[in-house]
């Protein structure tokens, strides 16, 4: 608490007060000239935007278009103008901005009462100003903040006009007419409760505030407080994934900031062990080079440089003074015009920033942290932002509601600045009218959500839980083991319910292997059942094929489709191979680096080299390569051991190529008494075993004898040097 | 000349002399500490490289591997070490580097005399140290420079050993045993003559020098001097294209620099109106964002940041003092350890750099400039390097010898930092052993060189000149017109011999059209013949399809191949359309920008939407999209008018999309009395005509009446405003 007090004091010293009363106090010129650069830029950017809007005059069109359409974008521009206009007035005292925000709101006061359901209504969650109620909530969250900055300076007639014809009915629309959405435990409800609650504080409407905090019935079983308890895991992971987490964070933090100002006794930022601030840090951890891991229905171009996070970082910094948040703001090169933003900009200018501690971590999922987890394994040299070059993500989380994908035990990997093992994200072109009005595309259901679109085990060509979100939401994987030990990071997960009677287990290991470059990833996947099944293990990689060590039948003159349904219909088959020994290797290049994927199955393996884009008449899908391993097992027992090896360098400018071929000569996998033994023979003759006991006890000693060699180690897993070949 | 004298004087003031005599003079510590940053970095980089080599000891393996293989790369590292070792010794006086270079050369003296043809011989141009003689020439060009820096300090026994067992036999191998290559008018011969000539100067062997300058028979019909007259056009364009031009420039400029030092009376840099320096500037002009236009057999990752140009820029700067060359060196962030490099580094540190004047220009091709031309039309806001954002290239050049592609009248366009309309370049993975040992791939012949692989007109599914390089080399297109007029840039070219009895003509215009963003490109293509023909016009674009305004038959479940041969066998057909009115439009997105390609044919057009990669069992081709327009014309008369319109913006971070759809409502093309009239109707109702008289006279007045509207203009072409729709 002491730190908080100090910060509060520091904040108080700021030139600009957040309460409207002081808004008319015009800052002195020298004060303006002394603004820290980031804040000054923000102010200039805001003025620039609002000035352009003012030049266009007040444009408040009758709602008509869906996302991306003209009226949609105009109402977005309008709420941004009200929000910024109010802030600029508070900061500069320039009444032109106050008047503009006021007049804009008076225009809405004219129109709003006449509105019914939006004409571009797409489902039951219809809005008034926008095609979906979510956007109406976003409008309110922004507009009410701008209104708060000017309201005290308006005439009582103006206030009444705006209060009664815009904010009260808008709050009523969200919390009463749209009660179904309002009482969900879902980020859409977070936006709605935030808008309604902040409106309540501004209008001094206790009832409105209580409904926002505790739900329509004020029972507390829904509403904002409950959302902070159910939507984040104890580790601050948001069940829908980082793309939605950063989206949900804005209303969470902005409303929390308002609660803190209006009801500090609620200690909202300490609620549930400071879950909201924890959630913000977690959001940053779930990114690579600034871009969020594209779990579930994610738009891939979303990065930390997103409006929702500027306010969040500023609020969190004001609450904690954590200097690593300053480096996030520095990366964003943005802040907000609140006193929190001023604090961020000042301390950044004072050189107080420290690198954000990107690290390996395991984040439990579920309100009690009992619905699986996501494991992030980071490794390698760090860049300027202090971020390691390699990040492997094991997604052993729950379904993540309606935007969740059927991707149990899936993984992803980044290296050398690129996504090497891919997650497709959402099939959607946000706000691009030509693509279904910017909404989710049909291929989001037929491809993006399907299991085969992910790096996971697919049984009998069906998606996990047969693609049923209800079933999927009932059962989550379990995280069996996690270790961030240097040189031997591990994540192991399991799920028994993705397919009836099939136990799926995956262990991912990032070991240091003498003689190999980093990263090396060992992937152990097992499917166990009493019944015969077909097991498919796709790897969606990024790059151009250099070579493979198996003979293929190529479909070079007519390209068939892999399957009929569940995503298989979207895969072109370039080539197929039969590997009786279950072994093979594929090498590709990406951005001057080579990657070899080497696999060994417990019996014959069919290999498919394919590309996405089949059955896609509207060219909605990206065309991306994949390799799929298929094991048809009469006894229902399938295992895949594969090694992803990064190696070498291609420098086109220098015309230099180094180590373009794998340094591994052979990969051999055995499963003995519940123990996985993977033996590697390097071309140098060096031999190593990666032994996995699957026993978490770090002290427990294990020993296995195989082909006359005894391999001994302690703990869950180990890299054991074997006698070199020829010795 | 006065400027040259001054510069010579300035050079003389440099701390470091180029003649070996002064090499033993150790520079004072303070002098070393005063090295300009770029030079100091270069010295550190060179030391770092040679120190590593010295740590490994002398490794001079018997030649065995092809390009990219171990012995190939080792001998490349060795000549680099000899070259840099000598330079470091000259600069620092540190004898360890002298001794290392000497001992390395003594190792070669042991081995070289025993060598025969390289075991990885691929064709008749076999080398000794390398699989092709070209690399042996490169070895000599570098090694002789390093040797030159230390030779005077060696014992006469050492000199004799190295002279007689390495340099004389190497020069003999290149100029006598490999006389065929040596006497070519080709960049391979430039490397050979440079190596032999510089060896001649060093060993004081007049005969060697004369053979290098004038060819084996000293007639002057071949040899270095003749190469400077035949390999560049009067505008300094090198017929093989920029990728080879930058490669050829090193021996041209390095040898010229040696000639200037040894025989200043030859005034080599003034020879043919200063062609060598002109060629260097032209090379820089033929790049976008530092990357060379990938004409012909080009490796796409080649940029100005390439070893061959560091020396060239330094030599040219020493000769001219042109400050815009400093900004090229600044972009390269590299220089060389010669006194020229010192001059570049010093003046750069002194802040003398000026932006390089990237501009629209026409470069004639052919020794007399009569074999066509390449036109570069640049436009748009400039970046930090002063380079315009848009560059359109019309390639109306001659074939460009064996590495030339059958791409008469082809074009390319860059915008917003990306290649929007593509040239495939070479099908080759340089030095990557798995890909045919890093040599050209079979697909270089079957795809990369073919006409259909380029943005040009293809008749009856055959390549230009039926793919016969001899025929192709005999006839070049003619550049009919060129204008870099602001707001209406034009290039027009024609060729009558690419197909018997077919006249091909293409006019590319970059106009400013009120109401449209820039760039807008109008492409007018005409094929004229007395006989029936099928005319195909492919556009190889970069991006993801957003929409098209025509109904298609989609091949979504089995993907057929477009044709049998001449590159058609490598094209998958995704969809086909029949347009009886000959009209249609396709919109794609790339890097947040939208592009709409709108076309109108003189009659029915078949449209193919396709992707490369068919009949490619080894995955040697990149998979890239194309749209192809097909006009089957009984009367042999085909015309295609198309408009490429850049528009809008997609900002994933801000979730903002603007103008994702074309602003053009209709495109209409007429051909009246030898005049092209393209009428544009914008969605705003605005109407414009782009009128093309094809008459170069800027004063000549033209007038055409069409649909009751009279369109009048003067000169070759004009944008004429028409009465708006509805007025």
Automatic annotation (TrEMBL), chains A, B:
Keywords: Lyase, Periplasm, Signal
A Pfam family this chain is assigned to: Alg17C_C
Gene Ontology molecular function, alphabetical: lyase activity
Domain Alginate lyase: start-end pairs: 77-283
Signal peptide: 1-20
Annotated ranges, domain Heparinase II/III-like C-terminal: 365-626
Domain of life where this protein originates: Bacteria
The Exo-oligoalginate lyase C-terminal domain, residue ranges: 682-720
GO cellular component: periplasmic space
Keyword Transcription: no
PANTHER family according to UniProt: HEPARIN-SULFATE LYASE (PTHR39210:SF1)
Protein name: Alginate lyase family protein
Organism: Erythrobacter crassostreae
